[in-house]
Every structure is written in structure tokens, then in C-alpha cells.
Amino acid sequence: MAKIDVSDPKALKAAVESYLAVYPGELINALQLWYQGLGGEGVPNPGVTKRIQDAIADAPGWSDAGDLRDERFGVQRSFKNSNMKTVDSVGNLLIQHMFKKDGFYKEPDGKVLKIVTSEVWNLRCFEVVNGKQVGPMLRIHPLSDRAKALVETAP
Questions:
Q1: What does the domain layout of the chain look like in residue ranges?
Q2: What's the confidence (pLDDT) of residue 95?
């Protein structure tokens, strides 16, 4: 995307809404949008970050989700796409909306798994025992019988 003048509120709002209209995820934060959607370089100053946050908050279908941890940017004020669906317009299943990242799921045998990544081709998980991740990373196909048997649970 071409560089925009972030001090121009109308240009910033238009650029943010344009990017959010095609953004495939459910959650976003200002730093993520700065780098991915606006082609930003370096760390934006707090004023620019605030203007981006305000533009996201004003975008149709997006609402404040509070402070959430992002694996790349740390804890950030995040926004949720309330129009997100589990199936796209072509009928493709959007696995990342079936299983929550960092969510805990119980298997029928009582093992608790923490989902660290949810992708179309696999769920990457770790078994959790006494609040700690143990053993090797497990890969489970999200449409497998094993994945279908997982039940969301508390940590």
C-alpha cells in the first residue's frame, strides 16, 4: 500500500477502512495495521497510534476488544470484527474461528490441550498438566475426529 499522510484524518480513515474491508482476521490492533495495512516503518508515535485506534473503532463492524496479547506486538488495545463468520463467501471453512488461539480444550480421555496456533491445515497444541505445558507440540487436523471431540474448558 502506498504511504499515506497519517496526520490527515480523512486519508487515514479511508486507508484504515479500505484495509479492514479485505482483512481476513477477527482481531486487529493499531501496530498490526500500521505495518501490514499502512506500510508503516519504525514505531509510530503515540499520537499516530491513537489516530489509528480511533479509525478502527469508527470502522463499520469493528468494536473494542480491550487489551489483548499479540504474539508479535505484546499487549495492545485490540479490536474485533463483529461480522466475522466461520464460513467465507465461497463456503470455505475458516478453522481459526472454530478454535480459539490460547484456548484450552479437553479431550474425551481428560487430557487438557492448549491451542497455540489454529490454522486451516492443523491445530498446534500442547498438553497442559498442573498449569504447565508438557511434552512435544501436537498437530491435530481441525476436521479430524480427535478435533471434533475437543470441548472448550477453563485452564
A1: 9-81, 95-153
A2: 52
